[in-house]
Amino acid sequence: MTLVTDPTAPRIALVGATGLVGNTLIQLIEERGFRYRDVHLVASARSVGRELTVDGRPYPVQNLEGFDFSQVDLAFFSAGASVSAKYAPHAVAQGALVIDNTSHFRMDPDSPLVVPQVNAHELDRRPVSGVIANPNCSTIPLVRLLQPVEARWGIRQAVVSTYQAASGRGHSGVAELREATAASLADPADPGPAEEFTPSLSFNVVPFIDRLLESGFTFEEQKMLQESRKILGLPHLDVTTTCVRVPVVNSHSEAAWIECHNPVDRAELVALLAALPEVTVHDQDTPGAFPTPRTVADRPDHVHVGRVRVAEHNPRGFWLWLVADNIRIGAALNAIQIAEALLERGTL
Ligand SMILES: NC(=O)c1ccc[n+]([C@@H]2O[C@H](COP(=O)([O-])OP(=O)(O)OC[C@H]3O[C@@H](n4cnc5c(N)ncnc54)[C@H](OP(=O)(O)O)[C@@H]3O)[C@@H](O)[C@H]2O)c1
After folding, report:
1. Which residues make up the binding site for phosphate (predicted)?
2. What is the distance in A from the centroid of ligand 1 to the CA of 17?
3. Which of 125, 225, 303, 309 could join 141 via S-S bond, C-beta 3.0 to 4.6 A?
């Protein structure tokens, strides 16, 4: 049981508790024995009347509208950027520290953007804004690998293609992929529904995530550049990305070409990556070994790396294939690890 009377344990609120990220936060609180003194499960008016359990105890889902944040020390927000924009400042004004899973505060200079394995030092002080931002789901695993590469060889440029799962659009994204796939199996000419993903994701890949910017890049692609720079403290880091939605239920994959300033030794690179915390390099038995969204499910709290290839014609550059659970590593787990790091430091 992780509900404790210890006065140093935080009183927490999970805003978006009924969503995919919110459900996974509850699971992680239970799995990791995260200690809390009280917990409030919060969502929209649609969910009032529902009950969810945490550590075996039932809790009613409360309406965010009118929720009193003075009852909590720490609020996790996972209910969309517009909800965070409206309600996170209110939670902070009522005394809560916010860990925000949405994009809203990520580039705010007063809100640190944290991946604990990379820049936990940003948690030494309570942020001016009262908000700690959780990065984008594809950015988190990438920067965990880029940081040691930058320190050892210096990065000239990273070119990344993502292969992002339907769960990146929450419960409704997963439901639509299943429904559209069933429709196309019944009738190959029927693409099924295409509201969350346009065109339909059934038997398809869609090179478009989030909204289009004037530059021709999507907001999802811009996030990877801007957020990587902020987290790594490298304002001139050159990262360029194509973000693609694929008909996979869960876990995002990325193919990354990383060109360094200095020649890279493959054995040293593999050893460097394998020594990172919570990273599995699939290279032990055969250098061609690779992880996939299906095969990483038995170790969902690790970033999985394979297909490590230093280019024969250009030994300064190498390719990586990485797979990481976007709901856990890309959202809920990173958020819980931020909270754990705050508690370790006594920053709450
Ligand atoms: N899925 C991912 O891979 C991922 C990764 C990183 C970050 N995120 C971010 O995390 C957030 C949640 O994602 P998700 O995948 O969990 O989505 P989801 O499954 O669609 O869940 C959305 C949650 O937000 C709540 N919500 C929506 N509008 C609300 C409102 N006006 N007031 C209060 N609650 C409201 C919903 O409550 P009801 O059930 O009452 O509607 C639900 O609990 C999004 O901002 C997303 O961008 C997601």
Report:
1. 106
2. 8
3. 303
Q: Is 164 marked as a binding-site residue?
A: yes
* Whether 263 and 319 share a structural domain: yes
Q: Does residue 146 share a domain with residue 263? A: yes
Q: How far is CA 216 from CA 12, 79, 116, 211, 213, in A?
A: 40, 27, 32, 10, 6
Distance 7 CA to ligand 1 centre (A): 30
Does residue 253 share a domain with residue 237? Answer: yes
79 CB less than 6 Å from ligand 1? yes
Please indicate, yes or no, whether residues 290 and 160 belong to a single structural domain of this protein.
yes
Verify whether ligand 1 is closer than 6 Å to residue 18 (CB atom). Answer: yes
241 shares its domain with 102: no
Nearest C-alpha neighbor of 7 from the set 99, 73, 91? 73
Q: Which domain holds residue 280?
A: 139-165+205-326
List, for residues 110-167, the tens digit of each pLDDT value.
999 999 999 999 999 999 999 999 999 999 999 999 999 999 999 999 999 999 999 9
> Does the Cβ of 232 fall within 6 Å of ligand 1?
no
Q: What pairs with residue 157 in β-bridges?
A: 259
188 Cα–ligand 1 center, Å: 32
Other Cβ atoms within 10 Å of 105 Cβ, number: 25
Q: Are residues 224 and 99 in the same domain?
A: no
Q: Enumerate the active-site residues.
A: 137, 252
Number of domains in the chain: 2
173: Cβ below 6 Å to ligand 1?
A: no
For the chain, state the CA radius of gyration.
Answer: 20
| pLDDT given at position 115 | 98
Q: Are residues 76 and 124 in the same domain?
A: yes
Please write the tens of the pLDDT for every residue from 298-346: 999 999 999 999 999 999 999 999 999 999 999 999 999 999 999 999 9
Is there a contact between 209 and 241 (Cβ–Cβ < 8 Å)? no
